[in-house]
Amino acid sequence: MTPDPFYDGSRLNQTATGNTGPTIQAGRDIRGDIFITRRAKLPVFPIQHEDREPATDPLWVHTPTPQQAALLLASHGLAVILGEPGTGRRTSAIRALQIHLSTLAEPPSLYDLFPDWDDDETPDEEVLPKSAAGHGYLLDATSRPLTAKTASALTSWAGKLHASGGCLVITGTPRDWGEDGRFTVSMRSPDALKIARNYLAGPLKSPDKADWLLADPSRQASRGLFGGAGNPEPTSGVLSGLVTNGVSPSDAVAIARRLKEIPPERLIRALEQQRNAKDPEAKEQAAAEIEQIKDEVREWSQFLEKVLVEPGTRGQDRVMLLAASYLEGAPLEVCIKAATVFDGNGDTASRRYREGRSPRKRMQQVGVDVTEDDKAAFRRRPGLAKSAIRMDWHHWTNERTETTEWIKRITAPGAVAEGWIKQIGLLLLELSRTAAEAPFFSVVQEWAASANSPESKRIEVVTGLLSRAAQTQELAGETHRKMLDWAKGADPLLKSVVALVCSGSYGTIWPHKAFTRLRWILGQDQSNHASDTAATALLTHATESKDGLNRVVQAVDSWLDKTPNHPAGPRAFLTLADPAKAGNVLTSLVTSAQSFPPVRDFLITAWTRTLAHPAVRDRAYSVLLAWAQAVHDGHLDRVFTFELLTDIRNVHTPQDALFHFLYGNPGDEDPALIEARAALANLRACNHTRCDQPDCPLKKNPSAHDGGAAETRETGDTAS
């Protein structure tokens, strides 16, 4: 056997079938090394600088939570920080990891660990990352509450990390962790005002605006981000009170970012006018401008209270604002038509909206600007649209169902807002992060189910929205559940959406979940767009990177091993084995199989189980013909490929597709097929590299039709 430069010399104790030992390296290919294991490692991603910066001085704002968590890490290697969303759990967790690992000579390596396992599975050492000194892991449990078994497994793994110089921090709500309180820390939020000021003075590079928020302008910071002490500027403290004690850390950062967008000269001009103007009316105008700036930073809460909530509010005005908010940038007439169908009464409702004040006048009175080209905008009140959508949903609780159904009506195929579904979908996604009875999934499911074809624009939009939802902390868990339900269901359009989502970033971040959903789709009728898309998704991941190829091969090997009678495994394998569709992948597998037996075993076992499955008989024959043609054209190594097919013939009684391939019909005259038959007829017992693996497929299931070959295999003379 050709020596493998990555092989450390330890005895190989596994093959593709029934392997339970540690991961082994399986040869080389044009993209890297192939590994065959039963289960792939959970995905981990380095924690980025923008996430680590808020947990590092001088941007860090003190709270005792990280120090308490760091003490637990020092004792046990595990800390569980529990608190409500938006309280700063993630930043505190990163701070705790940095504190605990900062004593090492090398900078700590911090990673996000994604809980990519099924509900009926428990993560074990096979899928968890290897222990390493200086490695800290952060696991967010909010997307899936941890069972007692899972918590116990993670606790055990954290102990091994601790022994190796690593650690684990888990974050979640008090409902996401069990009753074991030995490792828990309650999240205490840091000072929101300090967070906002630090962000303005640091990453946002606006230290002067940080002083706008000072509660006491006479007390200037004398060090750190804010420079030396001095006389306060006229603008210092003018916006104090915007960030109160009840503001969450995430909202404090959002306020700082909105404040960054306020032009300083706008505030200075208003202050000067207020102080210097002798005309009372001018002073009032200046005061109103300052209040408008505050309201803008607050996301127009006071303005919307008047428009949406106060007594005397007209329902039609409210719907006008809602329509313009969802359709910002659309022609005003589109917004008006959308508003008129809110209650579904057709022409009667439409006439009512156009009676009395003109619709344009109504739009303007509720804060909507009309542009020169007659489109709805919010130039004078940036951010009003999102705030209006959020306040309307939270205030009018009895009309949430009506609002959801209205959105479905105006975005139906051929309806007035059909072309605006991407913008509306993004607004619904943002709303659903915090909203009760969130409308996002109901609406996008309606959009997908109403598409006229799997290639339609609606399907493309829904795919993008679901991919984004899966990466949104508050919506990830429900996204996983919906996609599994759709993959199992009967709607082919919803299945196509799932397959498309799994082919993208979702499959990179959550590979196990993606492959589970693709397996459900592949297990059903092959002759539909969803199954073809699922197969293409597997191929996409196999061709994009070394890790992707490894994970796909591991998944297919697992399917064939655990459920040999299920059609998903054979269909997936034929996708990887088809030279027309997977030329690079197949070449990589065949090249690795020439020098490393486990990859050869995978190909033999996969072909054997695929040939035995009646659901893929015709497809298997087509791929066998494609192999013969690839050999004939010089794309596959002739000697090795025919030796491999001989091994498959010897371990699998020729029937169905293989029988047709070997013996065929008298009318078959394809040169490549004739060449393959002639070669295989003369390769009864191969003399290639000896294989000493106990699970080698050639040592099992001797063919009844070929006594000589069976006898040779039993004596160990035929290798895998």
List strands and helices in order, with pairings.
Layout: E1 24-29, E2 32-36, E3 44-46, H1 49-52, H2 65-76, E4 78-82, H3 89-101, E5 109-113, E6 135-140, H4 148-164, E7 167-172, E8 184-186, H5 192-201, H6 207-212, H7 249-260, H8 264-276, H9 280-297, H10 301-309, H11 315-326, H12 332-340, H13 347-353, H14 359-365, E9 369-370, E10 376-377, H15 384-395, H16 400-410, H17 421-432, H18 440-449, H19 457-470, H20 476-488, H21 492-502, H22 505-509, H23 511-522, H24 529-544, H25 546-562, H26 568-577, H27 583-595, H28 597-611, H29 617-632, H30 638-651, H31 656-662, H32 671-681, H33 707-714
Parallel strand pairs: 4-7, 4-8, 5-6, 6-7
Antiparallel strand pairs: 1-2, 3-5, 9-10
Region (Disordered): 1-26, 694-720
Biased composition (Basic and acidic residues): 711-720
Biased composition (Polar residues): 11-23
Q: What report would you give on this structure?
A:
It is a single chain. By secondary structure, the protein is mainly α. The protein is 52% helix and 6% strand. The chain is built from 33 helices and 10 strands. A 6-stranded mixed beta sheet has the order 3-5-6-7-4-8, sandwiched between helices. Strands 1-2 form a two-stranded antiparallel ribbon. Mean pLDDT is 82; it is low at 1-33, 685-690 and 698-720.
